[in-house]
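Researcher: Let's do a round of design. I'm pasting the C-alpha cells now; please hold your answer until I've finished.
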C-alpha cells in the first residue's frame, strides 16, 4: 500500500542532520517511534504524479475560464505574472503543510497509535478535505487586513509587489523556523507579513505608518493568536486532570512500552482527534492561501474573477432593487447634495476612519451607481470585461464603508435603514466574496502534499523536547482534543488562530499537569520564536515590498 510507504520525502535529506535550537536528550526515549524508514521510489512516483496533476488541473481551469469568456490573448505578460504569483501562493501552502503537520500527527506517532508513514498520509488526506469543505470566512478576514488602496489596485505593479512581498516573507520565516525545529505559527507569520506591507505602503506615501493597517481587525486577530496558546495550555491541563480523576486506568498515564499500541478506545480517540485537528487545520489555514489567490486572480484576470458570474439573473435584479431602496434610505437620513465623485470621500474614510458630513451622501451616491450598473447590465455575468474591475472596486469600497460605519456607529441610522444597509452589504459580499472550486482543489493538493514532506523536524520537537518525560496516551488525547475544539470554534467565527500555538502549548500544559516538568531550553526557544515572529515578518515583508516597488 502507498500509505505504508510515505514517511517523509525529506527524511533522507542532509538537512535532517542539522542541529536545531530545541533541547535534546542525551539518550533516546525507550518508547521512541521509528522515524527513519526510507522512502520507496514508488512513493516518489506517486507524490510527483499527484503534484503534476494538480499543476495541470490548475492550468487547465484557468485556460477553460478564459476560453468561456472568449478572451483574446494579446500579451503573455499578465499570465506570466499570474503563474509566478500562483506558484508562490501555493508554495506558501505547501510549506505550511509540512511546517504544521506535527500539530496533528505528533501525538498519534509518539503514542504508537499510528505508524509515522500512515499518520502523515492520513493527516494529509484530511487536510485536503478540510480545505475543500471550508467556508471562506477566514480567507476574507485575512484580506480585510490589507491596505484598501492596494486592494483597489491589486492588478497594478504595487498590487503585485504587495502579494510577492507578503508571501515570500511568510515562506522565508516558516522555512527558517522549520530548519531550527521550532513549531512557530504560519498564521502569525502571514499576518505579520500583511502588517509589514501596510506599514511600508503608508510610509512610502508620506503617511504615518500606523495608518496603513486596519488595527481594529489586526487587534481582533491578535487577541485570537495571543489567547489560543493560553487556552491550549490551560484547557489541556484541566482535561488531563479530569481524566485522572474519573478514569482510573493507570496505563493511560504512563509512557508507552516499546512499540505496543494503546488500548483500543484511547487509540480510537487519538486517531479521531488527529483527524479532527488535520481537518480543522486544512479548513482554517487553507483559507489564507485561497484568499490571497483570489486577490491575484482579481488583479490579473478581473474579467473572470472580479465578480461572481454564476449568480442567477433574478438574484442580480434583486441586488439592484436592494441598492435602490438603500440609496433612498440614506438620502432620507442625510439629504445633503451628493458629491460629483463619491469614491475619494469613501476611500479617505476607509483609510482614516474619520467621518465627514459628506460621507453618507457619498455612500448613497455610490450605492445608487452600483445598483444602476447592475440593472443596466441585467446580471453580473453580462458585465463587460473592461468594466469588471471597476464594478468590483465600487462594491468593495461600499462594503468596507458600511462595515466600518456600523462598527464605529457612524450615522445614527434608524433600525429600518440599518437593516437595509446590512442587506445591501450581504448582497455585495455574495457578488464579490466567492472562491471557485478549482482554487480550493489546488490549495488542498498543495497543503495535503506538503504534510508529507519534512515533517520529522517539528514532530520530534513536539513529541520529545517540550516535556522531560515521554508523551503518555492521556496527554496526547487531552492536547489533541483541546486543539481540535479550539481550532474548529475559531473557524466558525472566522478567526485565523494558530494550530501550532494551541497544540504545542497543550502538550506543555499536560506535561505540567502530569508532574513531568518542561524542558525550559525548548520552551524559551519556542517563546522567543513566537515573540519574534511578528516583528520579523513585519520587517521582512516591509523591506521586500519596498524592494519590489523599485523593481516593478
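Researcher: That's everything. Go ahead.
Model: Designed sequence:
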Amino acid at each position: 500500500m502507498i500509505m505504508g510507504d510515505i514517511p517523509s520525502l525529506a527524511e533522507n535529506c542532509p538537512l535532517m542532520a542539522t542541529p536545531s535550537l530545541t533541547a535534546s536528550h542525551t539518550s533516546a526515549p525507550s518508547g521512541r517511534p521509528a522515524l527513519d524508514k526510507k522512502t520507496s521510489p514508488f512513493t516518489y512516483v506517486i507524490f510527483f504524479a499527484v503534484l503534476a496533476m494538480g499543476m495541470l488541473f490548475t492550468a487547465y481551469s484557468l485556460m477553460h475560464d478564459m476560453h468561456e469568456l472568449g478572451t483574446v490573448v494579446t500579451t503573455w505578460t499578465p499570465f506570466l505574472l499570474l503563474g509566478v504569483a500562483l506558484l508562490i501562493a501555493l508554495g506558501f501552502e505547501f510549506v505550511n503543510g509540512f511546517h504544521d503537520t506535527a500539530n496533528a500527527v505528533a501525538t498519534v506517532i509518539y503514542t504508537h497509535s499510528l505508524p509515522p508513514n500512515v499518520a502523515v498520509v492520513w493527516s494529509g488526506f484530511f487536510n485536503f478535505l478540510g480545505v475543500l469543505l471550508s467556508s471562506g470566512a477566514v480567507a476574507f478576514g485575512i484580506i480585510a487586513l490589507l491596505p484598501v488602496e492596494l486592494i483597489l489596485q491589486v492588478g497594478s505593479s504595487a498590487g503585485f509587489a504587495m502579494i510577492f512581498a507578503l508571501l515570500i516573507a511568510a515562506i522565508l520565516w516558516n522555512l527558517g523556523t522549520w530548519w531550527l525545529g521550532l513549531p512557530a505559527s504560519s498564521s502569525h507569520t502571514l499576518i505579520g507579513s500583511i502588517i509589514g506591507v501596510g506599514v511600508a505602503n503608508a510610509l512610502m506615501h508620506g503617511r504615518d505608518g500606523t495608518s496603513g493597517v486596519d488595527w481594529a481587525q489586526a487587534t481582533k486577530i491578535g487577541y485570537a493568536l495571543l489567547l489560543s496558546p493560553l487556552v491550549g495550555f490551560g484547557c489541556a491541563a484541566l482535561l488531563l486532570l479530569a481524566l485522572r480523576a474519573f478514569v482510573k486506568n493507570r496505563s493511560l498515564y504512563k509512557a508507552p512500552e516499546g512499540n505496543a499500541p494503546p488500548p483500543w478506545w484511547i487509540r480510537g480517540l487519538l486517531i479521531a482527534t488527529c483527524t479532527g485537528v488535520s481537518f480543522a487545520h486544512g479548513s482554517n489555514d487553507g483559507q489564507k492561501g485561497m484568499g490571497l489567490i483570489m486577490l491575484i486572480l482579481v488583479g490579473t484576470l478581473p474579467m473572470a474573477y472580479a465578480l461572481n458570474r454564476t449568480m442567477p439573473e433574478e438574484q442580480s435584479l434583486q441586488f439592484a432593487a436592494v441598492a435602490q431602496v438603500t440609496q433612498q434610505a440614506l438620502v432620507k437620513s442625510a439629504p445633503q447634495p451628493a458629491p460629483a465623485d463619491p469614491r475619494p470621500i469613501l476611500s479617505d474614510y476607509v483609510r482614516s476612519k474619520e467621518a465627514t458630513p459628506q460621507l453618507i451622501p457619498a455612500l448613497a451616491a455610490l450605492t445608487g451607481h452600483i445598483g444602476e450598473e447592475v440593472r443596466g447590465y441585467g446580471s453580473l455575468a453580462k458585465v463587460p470585461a473592461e468594466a469588471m474591475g471597476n464594478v468590483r472596486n465600487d462594491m468593495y469600497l461600499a462594503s468596507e464603508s458600511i462595515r466600518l460605519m456600523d462598527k464605529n456607529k457612524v450615522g445614527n441610522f434608524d433600525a429600518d435603514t440599518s437593516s437595509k444597509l446590512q442587506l445591501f452589504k450581504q448582497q455585495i459580499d455574495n457578488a464579490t466574496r466567492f472562491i471557485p472550486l478549482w482554487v480550493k482543489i489546488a490549495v488542498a493538493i498543495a497543503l495535503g502534499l506538503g504534510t508529507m514532506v519534512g515533517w520529522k523536524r517539528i514532530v520530534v520537537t513536539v513529541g520529545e523536547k517540550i516535556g522531560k518525560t515521554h508523551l503518555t496516551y492521556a496527554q496526547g488525547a487531552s492536547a489533541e482534543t483541546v486543539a481540535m475544539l479550539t481550532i474548529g470554534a475559531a473557524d466558525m467565527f472566522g478567526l485565523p488562530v494558530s494550530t501550532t500555538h494551541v497544540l504545542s502549548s497543550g502538550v506543555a500544559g499536560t506535561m505540567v499537569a502530569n508532574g513531568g516538568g518542561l524542558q525550559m531550553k525548548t520552551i524559551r526557544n519556542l517563546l522567543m520564536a513566537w515573540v519574534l515572529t511578528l516583528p520579523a515578518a513585519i520587517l521582512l515583508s516591509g523591506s521586500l515590498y519596498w524592494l519590489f516597488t523599485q523593481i516593478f
